[in-house]
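Researcher: Re-running this chain for the archive, since the previous output was lost when a drive failed. Same request as before.
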Amino acid sequence: MRPEKHILLVDDESQNNDLENIQRNLISEIDVSYSQIEVLSPEHLDNSANFDVEKLKATLFDFIKRVHYDLILVDYDYGADVEISGLDVIDIIRKEYKSIDIVLYSADQKKVISDVVGDDLSKCTPEDIVRDINKLLNYKISKISRRDAYVSDVVHMLRD
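Model: Regenerated structure tokens:
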């Protein structure tokens, strides 16, 4: 009997093609099932059509309570209309679920680093840089991937 792995993906756009690609790459070794939470779906908007972080939080916890996820994939950037980032989503998850493996992915890794450490590292003291790197480490992210490489990274992680 092949092992079973469950993936939850949090993004502002459908990633079904990537999730199906992960599934296809592992079909002979692992049974992979997946779910996706689309951050900008109508269920996460208030009555004025503004993003509501509390509704997203409720959806996240509802999904995580129903299924044991072996891996959660979190996009970093949800666009200008959303006041949270993937790190905020990870922070929400970590407050309740400390041990789930999480992959943070982004098309713009410089943005992730600059949002955490700052735009100009030459103006930062070594202590500031270490503090900010530790802040990033405190999210307990299993891997940070480039958007164009996260499928391959996930396949390798699930095989291990």
